[in-house]
Amino acid sequence: MEIRIDRERCLGAGMCALTAPEVFDQDTEGGRVLLLDADPPAARALAIRRAAYACPSGAITVMEPRPAAGGPAAGAGAANSGPAGRSGG
To answer: How many CA atoms does the CB half-sphere of 52 hold within 13 Å?
Structure first.
C-alpha cells in the first residue's frame, strides 16, 4: 500500500488524524495533514482507507499494489476521496 498526501490540497479538517492517528497527524501551523508512517503494518490498512475516504478535500490517496500476473484483479487501483468523486474505501 502506498499512501500519498497533498498538503496543498488539505483543508485541515482532521478526519485523517481522527480515523487513523497512528498514521496521520496535523501540523501546528494550520492543521495540514502529516504522514507519520509511510510504511504502516497491514493491520492498519482499513483505517487508512477510511481516512482517505473521509478526507473532505481528497488530500489522501491510497494506492493498492497490483496483483501478480495471472492473479485476481480485486483490490487493485486507488482509493481516494474528495469532491471529484469517491472510489474504493
So the answer is: 26
Please tell me the chain's helix, strand, coil percentages from 3-state DSSP, rounded to the nearest 5.
20, 20, 55
Could you tell me the sign of the dihedral formed by the alpha carbons of 49, 50, 53, 57, in that order? negative
- Containing 51, the helix (H) or strand (E) segment is helix 45-54
Cα(45)–Cα(63) distance, integer angstroms: 11
CB atoms within 10 A of CB 87: 12
Q: What is the pTM of this model?
A: 0.74
d(C-alpha 85, C-alpha 39), whole Å? 26
Read off the pLDDT of each residue in 3-10 and give the average, rounded to a whole number: 97
Query: Of 38, 41, 48, whose CA–CA distance to 80 is shortest?
Result: 48
Helix (H, G, I), strand (E, B) or coil at 34: strand
